[in-house]
Amino acid sequence: MSVDSHPHGDFSGEWWERHYQEHGTGHAEPSPQVVAELTGVPGGTALDAGCGAGADARWLAARGWKVTAVDVSATVVAAARSSEQAERVTWMAADLTTWEPPERYDLVLSQYVHPAVPFTDFVRRLATFVGPRGTLLVAGHDHTHEDPDVLEGSAIQLEAITSGLDPADWRIDVAEAREVAVSGQHPRHDVVVVARRTS
Fold this sequence. Notes:
The protein is an alpha/beta fold. The chain has one domain: Vaccinia Virus protein VP39 (Rossmann fold, 3-Layer(aba) Sandwich). It has helices spanning 13-23, 32-38, 55-62, 74-81, 119-127, 158-162; strands at 45-49, 66-71, 89-93, 105-111, 130-141, 170-180, 188-197. The protein has a 7-stranded mixed β-sheet with strand order 3-2-1-4-5-7-6, sandwiched between helices. The N and C termini lie far apart (33 Å). Residues 1-9 have low confidence and may be disordered.
C-alpha cells in the first residue's frame, strides 16, 4: 500500500458525527504520547488538531499553554466545551483539511486523526500551521499491527508522517513505533513523530 493511500474513504465529518453520537465522546485522560513528549516543556500557543473530547487540550492548558482545539465533529466539540477545566482553551468545530488557522502556533499536535485525504497531504498541511522554531507532534495507529480496539482502516505508516516534512525546514527528533498499555483493552501500537521547525 502506498504511504499516501487511504484505505477507508468514509472518515468524513458526517461519519464522525454519527460515530460520536452512537459511541460517546471518548476518553477523559490525556494521550500517553502527549504526556511523554511534552511534560516539562514551557507553555506557549498550541493547536490540538483533531481534539476529540479535549483531554489533551485541557492537559496542555493546565500546564500554561494557550490552546486552540479543533475537531470536525460539532458533537464532540460541544461536549469538550462543556467539560470542567476547559479554561485557556478555544474550542472550534471545523474541517482541518480546509480550515485556515488565525495564527501560527508554537506547538501543533494531531493524534489518531483520520482525515478523508491522504495522510501525507494532511501532515504537509499541519506543518504550515507551525510557527518559527515550533514543534509538530503527530501520532497514529501503527499499520503493522492489527489492534482489535482500533477502527478499521485508521492505521498509518510511519513514512506517511515523515515524508510530509521537508528536511530543509524540519528536524525530526522522534520517529518510532511504540506499544501503549490501555486500561481494560489490548495493548495499542502507535507511531509517533516529533519534529522541530528549523527556521
